[in-house]
Design a protein that fits this description.
By secondary structure, the chain is an alpha+beta fold. It folds into two domains: 94 residues; 116 residues, Immunoglobulin-like (Sandwich). It contains four helices and ten strands, in the order αααββββββββββα. Helix 1 packs antiparallel against helix 2 and helix 2 runs antiparallel to helix 3.
Amino acid sequence: MRRGAIVRVVTIGLLAAAVATAVALLIPWLPAQESKEGERIDLVFWFVIAICIAVFAVVAAVTVYSVVKFRARPDDDSDGPPIHGHTGIEIAWTAIPTVLVTAIAIASAVALAENGKLTSDRLQVDVTAQQFAWHFKYPQYGGLESNELRLVEGRQVELHLRSLDVIHSFWVPEFRQKQDAVPGIVTQLPITPTKVGTRTLVCTELCGLGHALMRAPVIVMKEDDFDRWARSQQQGSEGTPG
C-alpha cells in the first residue's frame, strides 16, 4: 500500500475513533457509581469500550477507504482482479483478537476475584425475596427485621439472598452488581457503599404480574446514624406486645 493510501486510512481511522470516543464519553450511559466493587466493574467496562473503539476505528477506516477507492463504475461489469490469501494477515487477524479477548478475560477475572473478597468487620444482611416484595433481616443486631435495606457508608455488607417462590434478582444500579435470588439455595453478594443517600432496589428477573412494583428503598447511612437506627428499631420491637 502506498504512503498516501496509508495516510488516508489512518486519518479515517482517527476520525472514526474520535467520534466513537465522544459518543462514549459525552453521553451519560451509566448511573452514578457508588460502591467500591462498582469501581472495578466500571474499570473493566471502560477497558472493553476502549478495545471496541479501536476495533471499530480499524474496520471503519478500511471499509470507508475501500468503498471510495475501489468502487466500480455503474457500467463496469468486469470481474475484479484475482486475490489470493495472505498468510501474515491471516495470522494477525487471528492473533490480535485472541490477545484482546484474553486481556478482557484476565481483567474480568481479577475484578471478580477482588469483588468477592470479604472483610472481617462486614455487615451481614439476610435478604428474602417473594412476590412482590423484599424483606431484610440483620442477624448481628438481634435478628432485627426491616422492609428497608439500611447500609453503612464505607462498610462492606454481605447479602445472603433467598427466594420463597420464584427466581428474583437483586439490583441497585448505583452499586453495579446484580445477583439472582433462587428458590432452594442461598446466594451471596458483597457490596461496599461509598456515598450516603437513598437508592432504589429493583427486581430484574421477570417474576410475575407485580414484577414492576417489586422495589424497596436502600438507605446508606453514616455508622453512628446506622447504630442509632438499629437501637431504636430493637427497642421498638421489644416494646411491641407478642
